[in-house]
Amino acid sequence: xxxxxxxxxxxxxxxxxxxxxxxxxxxxxxxxxxxxxxxxxxxxxxxxxxxxxxxxxxxxxxxxxxxxxxxxxxxxxxxxxxxxxxxxxxxxxxxxxxxxxxxxxxxxxxxxxxxxxxxxxxxxxxxxxxxxxxxxxxxxxx
Length: 142
Prior knowledge:
The chain is an alpha+beta fold.
């Protein structure tokens, strides 16, 4: 990883992204949390409150993975000096109120900021609200 005292050293964001993304793909709250800073902010822009702090994020992921089974399909991935923007498609396995399974697809976009030692300091997730509302309505969750 990068030494925090060396401002000339560039972060290897593609490597950090792959490790971070593997935490989400493997549904590993511990790995995800260890890659965030202590004072991290995770904000799902769907009307819910931002989650602040590594421990709160870990617990959020535990609950999220218990409640929903989803996979991520990659689309565009752009890197800046200390951030990445990741466009992806969530495939979410749900059931309607009668118990019939169905698959929902919801477009999403992550904006992730990383500090000088490679920790995620902020993750903002923007999801397609219309697609989410339709899926949750069909599942009786709306």
